[in-house]
Fold:
Amino acid sequence: MTVGKDVSALFPDVVNCMQTDNLELKKLVYLYLMNYAKSQPDMAIMAVNTFVKDCEDPNPLIRALAVRTMGCIRVDKITEYLCEPLRKCLKDEDPYVRKTAAVCVAKLHDINAQLVEDQGFLDTLKDLISDSNPMVVANAAAALSEIAESHPSSNLLDLNPQSINKLLTALNECTEWGQIFILDCLANYTPKDDREAQSICERVTPRLSHANSAVVLSAVKVLMKFMEMLSKDLDYYGTLLKKLAPPLVTLLSAEPELQYVALRNINLIVQKRPEILKHEMKVFFVKYNDPIYVKLEKLDIMIRLASQANIAQVLAELKEYATEVDVDFVRKAVRAIGRCAIKVEQSAERCVSTLLDLIQTKVNYVVQEAIVVIKDIFRKYPNKYESVIATLCENLDSLDEPEARAAMIWIVGEYAERIDNADELLESFLEGFHDESTQVQLQLLTAIVKLFLKKPTETQELVQQVLSLATQDSDNPDLRDRGYIYWRLLSTDPVAAKEVVLAEKPLISEETDLIEPTLLDELICYIGTLASVYHKPPSAFVEGGRGVVHKSLPPRTASNESTESPETAPAGAPPGEQPDVIPAQGDLLGDLLNLDLGPPVSGPPLATSSVQMGAVDLLGGGLDSLIGGTNFVAPTTAAAPANLGAPIGSGLSDLFDLTSGVGTLSGSYVAPKAVWLPAMKAKGLEISGTFTRQVASISMDLQLTNKALQVMTDFAIQFNRNSFGLAPAAPLQVHAPLSPNQTVEISLPLSTVGSVMKMEPLNNLQVAVKNNIDVFYFRTLYPLHILFVEDGKMGES
Amino acid sequence: MISQFFILSSKGDPLIYKDFRGDSGGRDVAELFYRKLTGLPGDESPVVMVTTGGRRHHEGRHFIHIRHSGLYLVVTTSENVSPFGLLELLSRLATLLGDYCGSLGEGTISRNVALVYELLDEVLDYGYVQTTSTEMLRNFIQTEAVVSKPFSLFDLSSVGLFGAETQQSKVAPSSAASRPVLSSRSDQSQKNEVFLDVVERLSVLIASNGSLLKVDVQGEIRLKSFLPSGSVRREVSLFPGYGPGIRVDEVSFHSFVNLDEFESHRILRLQPPQGELTVMRYQLSDDLPSPLPFRLFPSVQWDRGSGRSTLEPKPRSLNVRLHLPLPRGVISLSQELSSPEQKAELAEGALRWDLPRVQGGSQLSGLFQMDVPRPPGPPSHGLSTSAPPLGLGPASLSFELPRHTCSGLQVRFLRLAFRPCGNANPHKWVRHLSHSDAYVIRI
Structure:
């Protein structure tokens, strides 16, 4: 505005002009104040008098201007002078002043929250919710919900059927921007039964034809969420499904930026309820002048919508895309053909022949992509399309990308018995073994071992060569370990080796890139927001943990139980999942030894345990909130104070506590350890423990005893959501494996930053402990005093 | 909620910078954004991005931007807000700034800094959108727009479409486009004018065997009104005549539109505010009432590497361009065109055939010959195969069809229920235009 010059030196002169009657000049002066008051806080005081005077000006424009500007001046000294004028303006006769004042409360709250509460502004703000002017209502609601976010426990924005009704009425009157806000508010409400849900849906549906796409998407969000409560047998459910399609299609005719955002949302909607858009395949066809980010999203959605009914059309399109010029897009298109084959079984044959056609073009990157996807097709339909192997082998020399090479090597190893010159092919790869990437090296090692097990006589030399390359000449621990494992297997028990290496592999799942159901449900609650664009929960990217309240779809509570059909299971397990098809996560684990196309698994132990628990949980149900990265409380470095002068669970220091009485600074009562998990219930693992509070930190003292006959390793612990957000602040660290009859004592630091859910009784805590044998669940009650801080106040508000 | 709003020039200089929340790192955020944007590979502009790894203040900041008339309009936020809302807001702001300052551009923005800040103050308070309606804002805005050049209202030779962003952008901006909508209080002698545009975008996909894979038409009726507001009752009635033969699949109307007589007589009534608004948006797919405006008959022979294409346009059309990506490595091109004003050239690995003016019902043909280098590979797969080598096509056409709508929709009359207060009768301009969005013929 000032061409980068600092004009704060003019402050006194500008303030002198403040008392002008010319509105245009006054606005400019105020604009100046907003920009420079922060750098001249002392001088800003000079302006206060004029502000106060202007707040009483007969002209409502000036009153509003004064109160708005005062709120924007973030100088502490000024805020106290602001209270009186603000109070008057909140009750002003002019709605323009009132709506400005409502926002000003939010501004003031950001600067000095205590002041706002003390002055009773929050109550005034609540009254404004029932103001006669829709603009005032919208602003008051906006201000309240922002303030409510910083006080999660308070019921500032209390939603009940009456207030919902008020909001729905205001929905018809206010501006489009207000409508967005009200719809977002509605989405946070949980109707008490399906009738209420339906009546809200009916009143929200007209918003779907609004010209503002933000209004449309917010309405879609409300509908998607409340639909969860409606029975699928209702006529209304079908009507609603039909109504949702046209507005989503219309969004795709907007500018590319909006299209992209819309497509990211449609991607979620399609995964949740594919029936909505199943007839709209054509709108997702790629236009040549779409920006690449739009093209890739469209491609993804096309595959999600592919079914037996439209597969011919989809394949024809994909084949066209695979001949375009843009390399990235072509690659994705080729992959998409493979995904179609895996998804729609009837089309597999056609997909394979399409891929073969593409391989014939000899375009390098097309061939490589095609080989990668054909490998996946082999894994989905074993022993069906092996006739194409010969064609694939022709292209062996042109492969230069690690993924394609690894895929080809896997194919050769897997079908070694049908390829006459498999040993020559693999040997040719072996020449440059050390120049290959890890992925290819691992694959080559496995493939040659497979070959050896299938044709032991002529390949003995080859296998020895690769084993020595892997174990003696390599610096890569993964490769070396795998080499040694194979070596020992082969040398001790070739029959066992055959069983291990040539074991039947689990089929790969239909769609490997589906979003995990609990995350998907959470994201559905965030339709139309940034979370839905990133496909990440807001807690993953919103700073400071504001607004990180986990949302979940409402459970189905029908007022009329008889309408509920058993097949409409709640969201969670996708219907029709075959037990022999293991989900993507399990795929990684189940096949770790054999197929190593993914990046090497070298995450922290906690991460792996979460994957395992996820897999277990999918089968058993139960503690669903434990799985997934979303609720997983990452170990924080800040909260590891357990060793700060606190006894670390050794018998000696316990004694010390008792005798001296000053061993713990707080002198907090520690209950004796009780058995929480008897060995009978946990395959030999016995857990007893207690809770302690030491100098402002809570910890859980555990005693693990191995009463089984085998060694226990890989311990991890996780809590279910609980009333006070208790969560482990660090991973459970059992340093050495626990041998039979050994006991170890551990103090696990706890934090209260986990997700909160009211439990019955209040201090109930559900815990899952995992080791190499299994996952065990138990519950315990924790004494409430561990939550109290030493000075007598509650630690967690 | 919105933390900041800024406008950057095409070179990245911040023209306008407004911080609503005081929670951001200051002006250098704008610079950071520009660096991030220009540092991207390719010309794709992502809609949303997070800056991580910079200084502490910039952690978790989301940028949402649009490009308009060479300017970047950007908002930043640190919360999980609706990107639709923000994108919509940005395009409204672009319209609004256009309405108030005349056209939107680097020059007009820097001449009207005070006005822009004043507008921003009213549109957004503490990051909450208050209103984007030109009409409502009139009550609050004091500053006058500074305009650089006088207007000549009767310079009709250059009247183009104010709203239609035609692909060629060759249409000269009309007087309507560069004039602030709000009549200044001092100057009451302004002309009353109403502009109504029916603009359709046509996307077509034709398979290589000539069958139509997909057609859709996206149309909108846009109104720009210079009628002075005040005590006079203004009402505009539109009669977008689409009779029994014409249908549309999806319609949405602006909230100002009164639809009482729409079902019975297809009449839209509205009291337009000053400024621009989209009265109606519609969409039509799969089944067009009129035949396609162009037919292209490509024929390709591979032995010599020549191709002939014949183009048959139905209505009169302007600025037709055929774009045909060619296989990599094409070196020479020889051409035989049916009329002298046409032009064909090789550019960026593609053939471009320009036809500035095409009469309706005519047939045009072009014969192009080019040398394609032999693809590397075994000699058995030479050029003798019938399959075209990778990289040829699809052909796409871009064009403008003035006075033509593909859906057949026409505005039959535009009536103003308006009592002139001393002025002459208002001028009404109604224009129809179709242009290509993606008109693709696979070869």
Q: What stands out?
A: Residues 260 and 268 of chain B are 8 Å apart (CA to CA).
